[in-house]
Amino acid sequence: MKLDLNPEVEAGLIALAKAQGVSLEAYMEKVLRERSAAGRAASASGASQKAQAFRAFARAQRRTPPLSDEAVSRQQLSRDGQ
Description:
- By secondary structure, the chain is mostly helical.
- The protein has one domain (1-58).
- It has helices at 7-19, 24-43, 47-60, 74-77.
- The longest helix has 20 residues, at 24-43.
- It starts with 6 loop residues before the first helix and ends in a 5-residue tail after the last helix.
């Protein structure tokens, strides 16, 4: 299959592939496999299929460090800082 992408989209996909250390083709295949699997699971009925789709979605997300206690303190979260 061949895709004709605009140069900006292609450049962005190439950058994402390089960040993961894979070729553009390998990156696109991985993304399409994940998306098609998540789509099939989400369209199926039942709680277990929905849970499986959520887990697939969660695995596809970028890992970020947890917030510090200070970042979620009452003072930080209140509008007036008191």
